Amino acid sequence: MLFCSLVPPVPQKPPSVLSNENGLLRIDLNFEEYSGDGPIKAVLLYYKRSLSRADWQQYLVEESLENSEIVLTSVLLEYDTEYEFCVALKRPGPGGEGRKGPSMRATLSCEEPSVKPEVTLQPVSEDTIKVTWSFVPSHKNMIITDFIISYRPSGLRSWKEKIVPKTDVNQYLITGLQMGTLHYFRMSAVSCGGTGPHSTMQSVKTEDGGMFMHTKSFEMALLLCFV
Predict the structure, then answer these.
(1) In terms of domains, do 144 and 90 share one?
(2) Partners of 74 in the beta sheet?
(3) Which domain holds residue 151?
């Protein structure tokens, strides 16, 4: 009786980049051509940072093998970091996974925002302005990390900046402003790719503290009349 030793399959080609835009890295696994024995049961994608001595990370692509393409995002990879990718194939039975095939390198690109925030301003007190904004990224995969609020009083050219981390609350109070003074505001969104364009510059005047003091004095006078 003759026993045939099966050879685990090994890809002959490295994976290749189909497209890299809008935070989506599309890769062709190129597993159709392989040496060794089939049938192929699963495709495994291995990845690690380029020039890193760390162990390969494994990602089970699929078992149906209907499509050789895969889309990677920032859930798996860090932006603007070069990674090395390779593919391994697995056939049924013990020891069915073959060695890793040829590798290729790619970087998940990160672009800066191209959309301006929509900003509204509201005086709250003599030294406080409430900034409220709305922002819709140019595509759903863009990850906004912060917003930068720039402001200055009328008569000065230098801007102060407040970095506000992105949360579900799209408003922020700017305090410590000059009383009864016109202030200019603008805003921009920040991603890992950089800072986007400024919003349309707007102006608003802080409340006049004199009216506030006059009201308080009037209330005090009324109180004394009833004592």
Answers:
(1) no
(2) none
(3) 118-208
Strand order in the sheet with 129-134: 118-123, 129-134, 171-174
Could you tell me the CATH number of the domain that includes residue 18? 2.60.40.10
CA 201 from centroid of its chain's CA atoms: 25
- Torsion angles phi and psi, residue 223, rounded to 5: -65, -40
pLDDT 10s digits, 48-98:
999 888 899 998 776 556 678 888 887 888 888 899 999 999 988 888 889
In the chain, the number of structural domains is 2
129-134 vs 24-28, strand pairing mode: unpaired
Residues 102 and 137 in one domain: no
Show the low-confidence residues of the chain (pLDDT under 70): 1-5, 62-66, 141, 210-227
Distance CA 15, CA 39 (A): 20
Residue 121's SS3 state is strand
Same domain, 155 and 199: yes
d(CA 25, CA 21): 7
Please choose, from the candidates 34, 30, 25, 24, the residue with its C-alpha nearest in 3D space to the C-alpha of residue 86.
30
Q: Specify if 98 maps to a domain.
A: yes
Could you tell me if 117 and 189 are in contact, meaning their C-beta atoms sit under 8 angstroms apart?
A: yes
